[in-house]
Amino acid sequence: MNRDQLVRIAHAMVAPGKGILAADESSSTIKKRFDAIHVESTADNRRDYREFMFRSAEAMREHISGVILYDETIRQHAKDGTPLVRIIEEMGSIPGIKVDEGAKPMPNFPGETITEGLDGLPKRMKEYYDLGARFAKWRAVIVIDKDGRPTEGSIRANMEALARYAAICQQADIVPIVEPEVLMDGAHTIERNYEVTRFVLNTLYASLYQHRVFLEGTILKPNMVIPGEDAAKASPDEVAAWTVKLFRNCVPVAVPGIAFLSGGQSDVEATANLDAIAKLGPQPWSITFSYGRALQAAAQHAWSGKREQEAAGQTAFTHRARMNGLAMLGQWTDAREQAAA
Ligand code: 5MM
Q1: With a 6 A CB cut-off, is 25 part of the ligand 1 pocket?
Q2: Strand 113-115 to 175-182 pairing
Q3: CA quadruple 101, 103, 109, 112: dihedral, nearest 10
Q4: Whether pTM exceeds 0.90
Q5: CB of 294 closer than 6 A to ligand 1?
Q6: Under a CB-based contact definition with an 8 Å cutoff, are residues 87 and 54 in contact?
Q7: Under a CB-based contact definition with an 8 Å cutoff, are residues 214 and 294 in contact?
Q8: DSSP 232
């Protein structure tokens, strides 16, 4: 294991003013996104869409430290034949890869899932390194509901899998992003989210310890502490206070960075919440974004599958990347949001 490289990459992923673009939608998820804008989900359309984002020079050079890719994308070439990975690197950003094979129903735990993909992972990891990936991502999904979920059994199994994945990554000199996502679905309170996320994070760090994972070479990708989407919204100041309290209790200071997922928040909401969190800093770790939907939704609508609207898609993507870059520094304001829009 090349510890120096892991530390260097992990720090670059959470550099000041920058965050991570989660462009690793699996084929079924990107189809849902494209259906919403009436675009057929073909390999060429997926390539064209991702290519225009990766060629957005200001966004990529100034605000996007790394891009999480899907297996198809890491192998794809741009229209001019350049590998998409090369475009990302030329923009000064780091290519990464989603290596989990999705959250599947967990036997004996109705309504809960276990993320699969460990079998054969060391071999796949080596191939991804050769294709240019320097970090990876694995997502565990935890639900909150009124019927006693999540269970301790599903949390323990998922955190164990995350730890095994992280150890395999580091053996291949790839920085693991560990993503335990507590979903926003439901009407639970912010307090309930706090309790569940606290148990999840404490279990995760116990598992990482047991699997001898080198924490200095990892990045945490968690949910913010937020009420369920069917409950009354919390203000950015409330979200920030609960989130910072939780992470200060649960995340070791050896971890270089925390890169939040957006989890179904609107794009401006995700920016405002990140900004409120940053304004409570400095913290022992760098805090930034690793957004999928909150970075891409506006760009998808502006583009809508039309070649002549790629520039509009790039403008929308660049705007969100810039706003989140400011939020990461605690320098975002509503006036900046409006002025730059
Ligand atoms: C971009 O979406 C990622 C892949 O999802 P699927 O495997 O379900 O297609 C997802 O893991 C994403 O990286 C995280 O959930 C964060 O994305 P959001 O949209 O929540 O910021």
Answers
A1: yes
A2: unpaired
A3: 170
A4: yes
A5: yes
A6: yes
A7: no
A8: P
Residue 122, domain extent: 3-340
For residues 53-69, give the mean pLDDT: 98
**Catalytic annotation present for 233:** no
Q: How many domains is the chain built from?
A: 1
What was the pLDDT predicted at 339?
79
Nearest atom in ligand 1 to the alpha carbon of residue 102 is 7
Nearest to 7 by CA among 135, 185, 113, 137: 135
User: Pick from 273, 276, 277: which is nearest to 246 by CA?
Assistant: 277
Q: What is the CATH number of the domain that holds 264?
A: 3.20.20.70
Q: Comparing C-alpha atoms, which of 106, 192, 89, 174 is closest to residue 138?
A: 174
pLDDT score recorded for residue 340? 61
Active site residue 221: yes
Strand, helix or coil at 137?
A: strand
| pLDDT value at residue 341 | 56
Gap from CA of 24 to ligand 1 centroid (Å):
7
